[in-house]
Design brief:
Layout lengths: L9 H16 L4 H10 L6 H8 L7 H11 L22
Helix pairs in contact: 2-3, 2-4
């Protein structure tokens, strides 16, 4: 019996957008953030990070905690709604 991949739900989509948003706010490339994650002890390639940000790869709890730490924030910050920058710049989070 073949198994289907589990779809990424609304919380996963929000988290993917939040990771990208906060990475860009901090002026980091995917390569730099992936290197920070690896330096913290959870190896991550920029390809894996790119897939996570595009919601093509699930972000497990260990990755979530590591990415948050590398961004200098609480893991909960990646799960909560992002503050609105302006009425024109809403990303659907």
């Amino acid at each position: 019996m073949a198994t289907r991949p589990v779809e990424i739900g609304p919380a996963g989509l929000h988290t993917a957008r939040a990771i990208e948003h906060l990475r860009l706010v901090r002026g980091l490339t995917q390569h730099q953030l992936a290197a920070r994650c690896t330096a913290l002890g959870r190896p991550m390639t920029n390809t894996a990070l790119s897939r996570t940000e595009r919601a093509r790869r699930r972000c497990d709890i260990d990755d979530l905690v590591n990415i948050a730490t590398a961004l200098g924030i609480s893991p909960a910050a990646l799960l909560l709604p992002l503050p609105s920058v302006s009425g024109d710049d809403r990303r659907g989070c």
